[in-house]
Amino acid sequence: MAVEVQRVPQVADPPAGTVVFLIGMRVNSLWKVHRWVPSFLAMIRMLTELHRQREYGFLAARTWLARTVVVVQYWRSMDELMAYAHDLDAEHRPAWARFNRAVGDNGAVGIYHEAYVVDPARTHTVYRNMPPFGLGAATAHRPQRSAPVPSGDGS
């Protein structure tokens, strides 16, 4: 799938209250596969659920895989994020209980999250020669300023 690179510099234009949520895991003991694979699979189930059921308030996500897995998620509001986290019928709550029973504090796998509420007046973003990305792709984006599109091949 081809993506269109935006040649005019863009900035994100999110509504107030949008949440940037960093969540992931770190494999501390590679050889304890039986400890960390269930957490990894639970992350996949939760992301699948969120992509299918947008009524939770989930907007978008981007995942990077390495020993430390990083998932950057975007949500409409902190209230909606917290409601999903505590929903007994959603994937998160049972996965959290399974993690605590299976892993607890044995150190084989770590999990983390950080959530930030966006105040557009105090947010700085720039996307130059990029397809829609990050906060701008999850919410809205606009030209940074009125500027003509460069001509030629950029050399």
From TrEMBL:
Domain of life where this protein originates: Bacteria
Name of the protein in its database record: Transcriptional regulator
Organism this protein belongs to: Streptomyces pseudovenezuelae
Pfam families: Monooxy_af470-like (PF13826)
Family matches, as InterPro entries: Monooxy_af470 (IPR025444)
